[in-house]
Amino acid sequence: MRFRALLVSTFAATTVSTPALAQHLPQLDVVLPGHRLVVSSSAVAFEYADRSHLISAAAGENNLVFVTEPLNKQIAVLDRFTGAEVGQVPAPPGGFLLPFSIRVPRPGRLVVLDPGGFPNPAVPSIARVYDYDYQWNPFTHVFAVTLARTVSFAGLPLVFAEDVEVTSSGLYVVAESVIGALWVIRTDGSISPGVFPSGGVSIPALGPCTLPPVTIGGIRYVIKGNFAPGVLSLTSHNGQLFFSSTCTYRIAHRSIAHARPACPRHHCGFTGTRGRGRDVRGNHGQPIRPGRPMDLCMRFIPSSPHSNSLAIRRP
User: Fold this and answer.
1) How many other CB atoms sit within 10 Å of the CB of residue 176?
2) How far is CA 158 from CA 119, 155, 226, 272, in A?
């Protein structure tokens, strides 16, 4: 099975036409051998790269796109325009165990979250966050990278670290999806609990829950034990941290930077932003950057007869 990365470039509707007119513009869907292009009034999407290993996350800048292949224990570096592989991120001492999530807060800096393995009560895993400094020469096509910092969560109560976000203030936030917590890595590399349950009582907005079996496209989807993980993916915008679990919530940066270890919902200022009840959708790597034309987001699908459709919705 091969996996394709879909590159979606979204445009502000005002750059094309008025919102009322944009709703009535036709959508162009072109299917070519091995490729697909979809153009609408608000977005352009095309198949960007064909990979032979499962992709869990992607991040990029003007010249490069980084994709994590956790089961292959590697991070590939792709040309932003052609999708061709131009290098790989060297593994840290001891190697990658499960490179799962990445961020590029600015060109030249790559942040990698390695949870240390999938959740296993019998084998505790240690999450680590790696900071890499890199350089890319577009003329010689030479990619150079060095490991700048390693932050280990050894000895801290994490079962599975799901995602990492870099805020505008320089804080890193790590989502823990089994206990249901947010951890903060400060600029000096120290770790503190941002939002963490106390007394064995999970925080509803962050903690796991029971997911009843559902049917998607005629296929019954059942999770062992009906376990649905808690806080999954993160993004930040205008001083707010957005995260998804069974819904999407936001919380002010200052709440996690100065939070107490025990933080009930009404003290943390959680705000739901999508839907009601339980929403069986994941927002891994949520793109929340309104008002910025030509934003990019990545979507990954198995290259199979049941996953060759693409729907683009205006933001």
Assistant:
1) 27
2) 10, 9, 21, 25
| Residues 171/257, Cβ–Cβ less than 8 Å | yes
- Rounded to an integer, what distance in angstroms lies between the CA atom of residue 271 and that of residue 257? 17
Distances (CA, A) of 218 to 149, 215, 306: 46, 6, 11
pLDDT: which is higher, 161 or 120: 161
What is the average per-residue pLDDT within 127-145? 95
pTM, entire model: 0.73
Sheet holding 64-69, edge to edge: 57-60, 64-69, 74-79, 85-88
DSSP 113-149: EE-SSS--TTS----EEEEEEEEEETTTTEEEEEEEE
Give CA–CA dist 161/179, Å, rounded. 10
Asked if the model's pLDDT at residue 315 lies above 50, the reply is no
Q: Tell me what pLDDT residue 46 has.
A: 75
Q: What is the pairing mode between strands 101-106 and 3-10?
A: unpaired
Strands across the sheet containing 109-114: 101-106, 109-114, 128-137, 142-152
User: What type of residue sits at position 286?
Assistant: Q
